[in-house]
Predict the 3D structure of the following.
Amino acid sequence: MKILLVFAHPESRSLNGALRDVAVQELRTQGHEVRVSDLYAQHWKAAVDHADFPPLPPDTRLKVAGASKQAFEADALTGDVKAEIEKLLWADVLILQFPLWWFSMPAILKGWVDRVFAYGFAYGVGEHSEKRWGDRYGEGRLSGKRAMLIVTAGGWQEHYSARGINGPIDDLLFPINHGILYYPGYDVLPPYVVYRVDRLDEGAFAPIAQGLRERMRTLATTAPIAYRQQNGGDYLIPGMQLRAGLGDPHARGFALHVSHEDAVEAELNLDAAE
Ligand code: FAD
């Protein structure tokens, strides 16, 4: 497979740098082609502004979505953005790797998404009708590909559990997994999250690296998170609410958008294949 790893840490000699090297080495050992976008090393421009849209005359009022659409259609996005889009189209699997900063991704990575996920490419795709609301949430330009997060966190695993003070990790990562990756079509694998990393001793690194190698070996076979497809019949159109009778009647929020029926079926299929 072809794999793109987008790395968002300012220090190559960090724990994240060491884990990136473990992942890349394991993937290459498995015979995969790997490319790395090292955002700090590339001096990635994180903030969207007028300069991102060369066709737009300098004194024109900037409307980002419209300018993005126009520039994407005219093949006139800036060279750095076009290079990242080319990598996304090339890759069968996208991996985003970052330390959890303020319960989310570092700004440089958010800025990569803001600029690279252009209108007409990652959003604003497909027809709107009584049956469809564009190609998104499970459909889109990046469908058929897989994506996954590698995340390190200072906090304890318990603090990110279902009743933990920080909120469940699946909820914190939902805007990235569902809102950024599933939206343009990726099948999103469960994340590889490493907790309590700030005072790691030498002995702790080996099992973390081993767990990551295992995840890299199973990229093609790991069952994706069973997010519900927007146009698959689970949602009312145009209201986009989950149909009555679907999901746990007591559930609220993000968990409603994961189909537990599909998750059980995927696990059964995996068991049968093994
Ligand atoms: P490093 O600092 O590079 O290393 C961490 C530890 O691993 C050190 O003890 C180091 O000696 C050891 N180590 C590094 N490399 C190796 C190696 N090769 N072998 C063995 N040991 C090694 N955490 C949260 O949980 N939630 C938050 O919201 C949050 N917000 C943050 C916001 C900011 C601005 C910052 C700076 C931190 C925040 N943190 C938060 C903590 C953050 O997630 C961790 O500091 C980060 O994940 C650590 O990853 P790193 O690569 O920077 O580790």
